[in-house]
Amino acid sequence: MADVVNPENEDLQSQIEEVEALSSIYGDEWCVVDEASRIFCIKISSNLEEPKLTACLQIILPPDYPSTAPPIYQINAAWLRGPERAKLANSLEDLYVENMGESILFLWVEKIREFLVEKSQTSESDQPEKVNITTEEKVDGDEDIPDFSTLRLNTENLHLFMENANDEEVPPIKHGNPITDRRSTFQPHLAPVVTPRQVKMVLEKLCENKKIASATHNIYAYRIYCEDKHSFLQDCEDDGETAAGGRLLHLLQILDVRNVMVVVSRWYGGILLGPDRFKHINNCARNILVEEGYTSSSDEATRSGGKTKRPKCKKTK
Questions:
Q1: Is the distance from CB of 315 to CB of 238 less than 8 angstroms?
Q2: How far is CA 276 from the centre of its chain?
Q3: Which phi and psi angles does 220 have, rounded to 5°?
Q4: In the chain, is it the N or the C terminus that has fewer CB atoms within a 10 Å radius of its CB?
């Protein structure tokens, strides 16, 4: 009797071979975070003297990668925001679609490196320490530290980001009232979403607005309820405002909202706000959720005060 080929074993063998190759190619830049959980990261640089840009690619390899699912990833780079982040994410997704079923990590790493080189060459003065980062973020100083807590959330569903859903329309986007404090302005945006593809469409639509695209940070979080699995697909993004996305997702969890995403744009005014910035982000997010009828439980969110344990964020995709 012929041996029955187990696709899972084939995928695992492909992953082992790919990781061995990447470790050999990239040396100390390649890091095994948790081999049992198939979690890895790699530090990528433009390889240019001045200006030199770097990014950290964090990866989880699902059991059915590479045969039927893409790697789950996020890119940490304090200078990478808005349209540029979306552009890079789109290029990685295009590479996956073009090479579906094949090992993709080497192509992704080199595509990111190519992006860094292009960014360095076209913006000589755009060094990481000179981009639009607030002093508050510089004090935090942990933008490039790998954090995989949110990547662990419903990883079995994250392949839905790659599904071809060209027939989907951009969900209606609501814009809430801004909050201004010491020249910093925070404005929430809300959209109903039922698929990860719609999350991406909403972000792209918001970035078409030049004012929103120019925001210092566009922090977001979403929760989608998967009826068939009775579980949530949820994620968040700091966009450089360290820990803000996790706090925002924590708010959505406390309010038990579903099938919605909230984006909070912050325009930094040059004066440090300290912890008040997190209060404003959550307050304006809670306000728009109440205004749009997703919850009336504002008191519960207020009591949380951002003091309970929160999931940290990327951060994507």
A1: yes
A2: 23
A3: -145, 160
A4: N
pLDDT in tens, 245-302: 888 999 998 888 999 999 999 999 888 888 888 999 999 999 999 998 887 544 443 4
Q: Which residue has the tokens 């981009």?
A: 131
Kindly give, in sequence order, each residue whose CB lies less than 8 Å from that of residue 159, ignoring residues fewer than 6 positions away: 62, 68, 69, 70
How is residue 230 written in tokens? 């009775």
**Left (φ > 0), alpha (ψ -120 to 50) or beta: where does 10 sit?**
alpha
Name which of 174, 137, 312, 144 is nearest 235 in CA terms. 312
Superfamily of domain 7-131, CATH level 4: Ubiquitin Conjugating Enzyme (3.10.110.10)
CATH second-level architecture of 170-304?
2-Layer Sandwich (3.30)
Pick from 306, 280, 298: nearest CA to 187 = 280
Q: Which of 87, 84, 86, 23 is nearest to 59 (CA)?
A: 23
Q: Is residue 63 reached through a cis peptide bond, with omega within 30 degrees of 0 on the bond before it?
A: no
Is this structure's pTM higher than 0.85? no
Query: Can you tell me the distance from the alpha carbon of 169 to that of 163, in angstroms, rounded to the nearest whole number?
Result: 14
If one counts every other C-beta atom within 10 angstroms of the C-beta of residue 314, the result is 22
Quickly count helices (H) and strands (E) in the chain: 9, 10
Query: Domain ranges in the chain?
Result: 7-131, 170-304
Bridge partner residues of 188 (DSSP): 264
Which residues partner with 74 through β-bridges? 58
For 73-90, write each residue's pLDDT tens digit.
888 877 777 778 888 888
Q: Burial level of 26, CB count in 10 A (0-12/13-18/19+)?
A: middle
